[in-house]
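thread: overnight batch results

M.L. [08:02]
morning all. the overnight job finished for the chain we discussed friday. pasting input first so we're all looking at the same thing
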Amino acid sequence: MGHLLSTVLISISVNLDCFAISLAYGVKKIKIGIYSNLAIAGVTTLGTFSSMTVGKMISKFLSASVANLLGSGVLLGIGIWSLWQTLTAEQQEKRKTEAQFENKISYSTLIENPEKADLDNSKFIDIRESLTIAFAVTIDNLVGGVGAGISGLNVPLTTFLTFAFSMLALICGYFLGKKFTAKLSGKTAGVLSASLIICIAIYEFFNR
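M.L. [08:03]
and the structure it wrote out:
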């Protein structure tokens, strides 16, 4: 039970991206179908499971104390790096050329301009388009998953919670965005996600 809090927090952290993007789609009235939701949740969950499994395998070659230190260190590093990336995102975007911006759909692009993933301008995200979203929000979480696996978090439970929270985040985010025209900026989502990861790292280090 010592890892339960960390398991819940890491599952929430992974899905803050999905929540922020679905809010943006709700505001823009761009619907995400149930199968597209499943595709996004499935890819996100698979990414979490795969990265945590790798971390778990690495931990078998380490002593408990070293695994704790390494796992917590990786999570802390990812949290700090993500926080720095989020806070300097505006400056980084200014350095990109217009061509690069148009040809590459990034996480921040999806939040600020959600219609860019709607390639056929149908106001509906189909399964093919949802995969763009899924991979955009999954790639940033892979290293954190490895750190969580090394730290000893329960892989099946984290995988299940990741899928459940992903579906909940996508559905609730779209509903809230559509009903209240609320929008969670990429900067806010990034800071929250990074802060959660940092908290998990500290908690895991002292809770071993």
